[in-house]
Design brief:
The chain is about 35% helix and about 20% strand. The protein is α+β, with helices and mostly antiparallel strands.
Length: about 500
């Protein structure tokens, strides 16, 4: 295993497969600027910048080192906070944090600085300005519990101004030709070690599975590694599928959008930004930027969590899941049939998810995705609703109402769907019947995030919101709350964070 750590080429094949990047930096290299806060990818104190060559360009992204196996970063440039200041000069992100008093107790500060440095680096490379939305997105996975985020946001907004007075960083890491040359050389080397395998195509994957039948599959690892950091489970051999080309496809064919199982949230987010803005809006609400940079679509679905955000979306579009067996054979399962119970799916022990097929016709129909959570960023759903309305000559010819966070598995409101199907799109009586049907068929769970009564009321309100938007009502959103005169006139509670 070879990678570049700051300005040093590392070659180390002695580490366990599940040894995290955080432990490696602190225990093996003495780089203690990277902090451990939660050990679960939530707080961002352990944030690292990781660079990779893409089409000859060096691009950087952030990740949570506490749940990232160091061996998954083979062939990459790992940047810790110690690398940012050079020749006695502070990086623009560091100088901005000092100038705007952005550091409070200081424990979370290295993570914030690296998140802001990544934003600065990518903005400089793309010759883009840095606005408040970009700053808030960059630090969405960095939590501070001292005083607040205003000075940190101010620091992020001022980084470009700082750059003019910090000459060594006018051209940043992406312009480092030495790192580019080293990474280009590392790309030619195999990334496999004795206990961590990174196949790059299905043939190599099949060989790895045959040689290591007891191995555990890992992609982004944002859920799997919690078994190691929270439950102290040791993994022997890991087979990393995140680099398998066939599982990374994001392809629009004549009638179908195919999404590979190893496509990350960030990759799908970038793809959907102009083509599918409603999907993009939902993806921006999933976890944090650090998690979205590593977490995969296949992992979100296969994990079978009742609060996962993508299964309701796939349910709304009647997606087909392509399953791949270890022997190379495949079979297709509709998303409606995939979940069998809490944490139970149709996946056999010798199968993995290969891809998802979504009809372009259904993607072109009216759809909305609403996520209700206590925080806008880096939080999980109390209620999730994915809606699709197919309209034919003013009538609803097909209706999908898919929910997450309501039961042991993602579910559909089938009785409510039936109450709307075949009705005029502006038939409010049909809407009320659908809401009553929903109340009779759903029995939401109660937990620390929401009561059953709250979840049921919210589900009904969100259906009404979707119906209003279908009929052209502008549902104004502000400060995380969505309201409209029509909603308020019904006496129903307006939806939060929808």
């Amino acid at each position: 295993m070879q990678f570049i750590l700051n300005d040093e080429l590392i070659d180390d094949n002695t580490l366990p497969s599940d040894f995290t990047a955080l432990r490696y930096l602190r225990e093996k290299r003495g780089l203690t600027g990277t902090k451990e806060g939660c050990g679960s990818g939530d707080c961002g104190a352990c944030t690292l910048l990781v660079g990779a060559l893409e089409d000859g360009e060096l691009r950087y992204s952030t990740l949570n080192s506490c749940i990232t196996p160091i061996q998954s970063l083979a062939g990459k440039h790992i940047v810790s906070v110690e690398y940012l200041s050079k020749a006695g000069e502070l990086h623009p992100a560091q100088q901005a944090m000092v100038t705007h008093h952005g550091s409070q107790c200081g424990f979370c500060t290295p993570g914030f600085v690296l998140s802001l440095a990544g934003l600065y680096e990518n903005a400089q490379r793309a010759e883009q300005s840095i606005d408040r939305e970009a700053v808030c997105d960059a630090i969405s996975g960095n939590l501070c519990r001292c005083t607040g985020y205003r000075p940190i946001i101010d620091a992020g907004l001022s980084m470009s101004d700082m750059a003019s007075s910090v000459e060594p960083f006018t051209e940043l890491m992406s312009q480092n030709n030495q790192v580019k040359t080293q990474l280009a050389s590392l790309q030619k080397e195999p990334k496999n070690s004795r206990n961590y395998l990174q196949p790059t195509d299905l043939e190599q994957l099949a060989q790895a599975l045959k040689a290591n039948p007891a191995a555990t599959l890992i992609a982004g690892g944002t859920d799997l590694m919690l078994e190691n950091t929270q439950r102290y489970r040791d993994f022997d051999t890991l087979i990393d599928v995140s680099c398998v080309a066939e599982l990374k496809q994001l392809h629009v064919a004549e009638t179908t959008l195919t999404i590979g199982a190893s496509v990350t949230y960030s990759e799908l987010e970038a793809f959907s930004k102009t083509q599918y803005p409603q999907m993009n809006a939902l993806l921006s609400r999933i976890a944090s930027r650090q998690i979205r940079n590593r977490g995969t679509i296949g992992g979100n679905v296969a994990n079978a969590s009742p609060i996962a955000d993508l299964p309701p979306l796939l349910l709304a579009f009647d997606a087909d899941i392509q399953l791949l067996k270890n022997d190379g054979s495949t079979r297709a399962v509709n998303i409606s049939d995939f979940y069998l119970g809490y944490k139970k799916t149709q996946l056999a022990s010798d199968e993995m998810i290969a891809s998802f097929d979504v009809s372009l016709d259904k993607l072109a129909q009216f759809h909305r995705f609403y996520k209700v959570s206590k925080r806008m960023e880096d939080d999980i759903s109390s209620v999730m609703l994915a809606v699709r309305f197919a309209v034919d000559n003013g009538e609803l010819s097909d209706v999908r109402l898919a929910f997450g966070g309501m039961a042991a598995t993602p579910i559909r409101g089938r009785k409510a769907e039936a109450a709307l199907t075949g009705k005029r799109i502006n038939d409010e009586h049909a809407l009320n019947q659908a809401i009553e049907a929903l109340r009779s068929e759903l029995t939401p769970m109660s937990d620390m995030r929401a009561s059953a009564a709250y979840r049921l009321d919210m589900a009904c309100n969100l259906i009404r919101k979707a119906w209003l938007e279908l009929n052209g009502t502008d549902v104004v959103t502000f400060s995380g709350h969505a309201v409209s005169d029509s909603i308020l006139s019904t006496g129903l509670e307006a939806s939060t964070h929808a």
